[in-house]
Amino acid sequence: MFLCTKLIFFLQMFNLLTMPMNGEKTEDATEEVKIEVLHLPNECDPKSKRGDLLNAHYDGYLANDGSKFYCSRSEKEGHPKWLVLGVGQVIKGLEIGMMNMCPGEKRKVTIPPSLAYGIHGSGKIPPNATLIFEIELYAVTQGPRSVNAFKQIDLDQDKQLSRDEIKHYLMEDFKKDDKPRDLAREDWILEDIFKKNDHDGDGFISTKEYNIYQHDEL
Ligand SMILES: *[C@@H]1O[C@H](CO)[C@@H](O)[C@H](O)[C@H]1NC(C)=O
Ligand SMILES: [Ca+2]
Ligand SMILES: [Ca+2]
């Protein structure tokens, strides 16, 4: 579990994961997400914000008949999900519904179709479906695209990431996992990182290209 989480964390640093629950893009801003707090812990720190890495369980129901279409507890041996908030990893309505949430908090979130799967639906979700999620948030931690993550990779501290720096970071990371190295795979990951992040093609990933959240100063 730990190793698996670590690798996922790394891949998320560079947007390499496919997004499993991408909702439909929509222009309809008239509909809103309804948030009911079911349990609020006495202590609320830190509150979730864009870019944070969250650990949570959530069950999804169709509002019209109450049937359950998704249950994170029945996946991956019941381990809670890790997700980065505000990067399109989950449907828009969930992103909104999980903002400013405390570790230990439970919410019931009602999401209109325009902020879920829209007029077409997807898989088990019928067209124009309003969704209800029951969310239990366990942990709010620093997200992958944080200043600290950037600084950790940027060995010479020139505020840009070179191929060598990322390669070094990748190597260290795989070493910790105690797995045999797979050079071809490492090269492929490195190429993919640059393809997706080095927008101006200068061979470095700048802080801007890395897209640090929260406008933290380096
Ligand atoms: C879904 O909603 C849209 C817009 O309100 C409507 O045009 C469409 O017919 C609906 N689809 C179904 C299957 O109800
Ligand atoms: Ca550097
Ligand atoms: Ca660049």
Automatic annotation (TrEMBL):
Regions that span the bilayer: none
Short name of one Pfam family: FKBP_C
Keywords assigned: Calcium, Endoplasmic reticulum, Glycoprotein, Isomerase, Metal-binding, Repeat, Rotamase, Signal
Domain of life: Eukaryota
First-tier enzyme category under EC: isomerase
EC number(s) stated in the UniProt entry for this protein: 5.2.1.8
Domain (PPIase FKBP-type) ranges: 51-141
Record-linked InterPro entries: EF-hand-dom_pair, EF_Hand_1_Ca_BS, EF_hand_dom, PPIase_dom_sf, PPIase_FKBP, PPIase_FKBP_dom
Nucleus listed as a keyword: no
PROSITE patterns linked: EF_HAND_1, EF_HAND_2, FKBP_PPIASE
Annotated signal sequence range: 1-23
Residues of the EF-hand domain: 141-176, 190-218
One term of GO molecular function: calcium ion binding
Entry's Gene Ontology cellular component terms: endoplasmic reticulum
Catalyzed reactions: [protein]-peptidylproline (omega=180) = [protein]-peptidylproline (omega=0)
Stated name of the protein: peptidylprolyl isomerase
